[in-house]
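Dear Dr. H.,

I hope your travels went smoothly. While you were away I took the liberty of generating a structure for the chain from your last submission, since the lab meeting agenda had it listed for discussion. I wanted you to have the full record in hand beforehand rather than looking at slides cold. The sequence, exactly as received, is reproduced here:
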Amino acid sequence: MAWEWGDGAGLIGGAAGVFGVFVAWASLSKAKEANKTAKEGLVLSRKANEIADAAKNLSDQANALSREANQESVTSNALAHEANRIATNANQLAQQANDLFHHQERRGVESHDVHWDGEWVRPGVYRLRNDGTHTACDLSVWGQ
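The corresponding predicted structure, in token form, is as follows:
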């Protein structure tokens, strides 16, 4: 029997078919592996989304706490300004009290040289004279 082109083509076609089966089997195996990897990726993706959602919730809570802390800070600053105003007024009152005390103290220890000398000049007229070295202020005289 002679070898013909058709026989060669059949042999090549058969070999190509067997090779195609092996390629298909290898492709199927890789497709299954890719499918498994995709499923694992999906699971990991879902976990990542859950973590991201939890992180967003924590971030929202942190932002809310931060806003609340900022408001407390504003209130605290307002109270501090009010306390400073009250302290300033108290210091002014204390200074006035100290000034008054020192004035009274100076008056208590200052020397007074006021000496009165008086005589009847005529009936109904009495002359009163300060013989001291200091001036008398707010003087009132009445008889008995």
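Two observations you may find useful: The mean pLDDT is 88. The chain has one helix and two strands.

With kind regards,
E. W.
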